[in-house]
Amino acid sequence: MQFDNNAVGRVIRGIRRTRGLSQEVVSGLAGIARTHLTMIETGKKKPNYETIWRIAFAFDMRPSELTAMIETEVGC
Prior knowledge:
It is built from five helices and no strands. By secondary structure, the chain is mostly helical. The protein has a single domain, classed as Orthogonal Bundle (434 Repressor (Amino-terminal Domain)), CATH 1.10.260.40.
């Protein structure tokens, strides 16, 4: 199975929108640039584990929870 940048982006964008958060807020909480988050959400950039970790904590969730949601989206 290959890594799916688009699935990662869909999950992160979906969580952000469900929680009513802007890209500026999430990127600020995660300590990454807003443009970096935009590229992740659109599938143009592959996040490393540290970035997934930071985004998960910005959403007040464990990285394993976010990873599980991505796995479900991919169909693992």
